[in-house]
Amino acid sequence: LRQKTEASVVIQIYVRTWLELRHSGWWKLMRKFLSPEFQRVAQREKLEREAREKIEKVLEELEKVKKEKVELNTQVDKLNGDAELFQLEIRRQREKYEEMQRDIAAVYDDCKKHDIEKEKFMDQLNEREKEYKKTKDEATQVQNEIKLMELKIADIQNE
After folding, report:
1. What is the C-alpha end-to-end distance of the chain, expressed in Å?
2. d(CA 48, CA 41)
3. Which uninterrupted H or E stretch holds 26?
4. Which residue has the higher pLDDT, 159 or 108?
């Protein structure tokens, strides 16, 4: 029986405390906070906040991607411009090469002509040298004949 009495005293204390707390602002606030409706609102706000944060992150990423796209497009444009300049330079160099090839061919043709002319002149020179030698040999022979005749004339006059 003593335990029952003590238990009823403890229960009375708790009931009195509850009755006092029940009308306080703190208790009303706690009840409101623990209500299912408040919990749903809090959950919804939490979800909305998380969704906003995710949207902000996605928008930030989108801005980064847009900036990167602009930078890459700028680089592509620059590279396309450089490629066009290189193509133009290649065309110029090719034209210059072709012109040099034509010049080389012309010089080669001129060299061939000069070689042919040189051969003609060498043939003419060789012929003239032969004629010169022949003429020189004839002149030497005539001189020898003249000397012989002079010797014969000198012998005849001496006799």
Report:
1. 207
2. 10
3. helix 25-34
4. 108
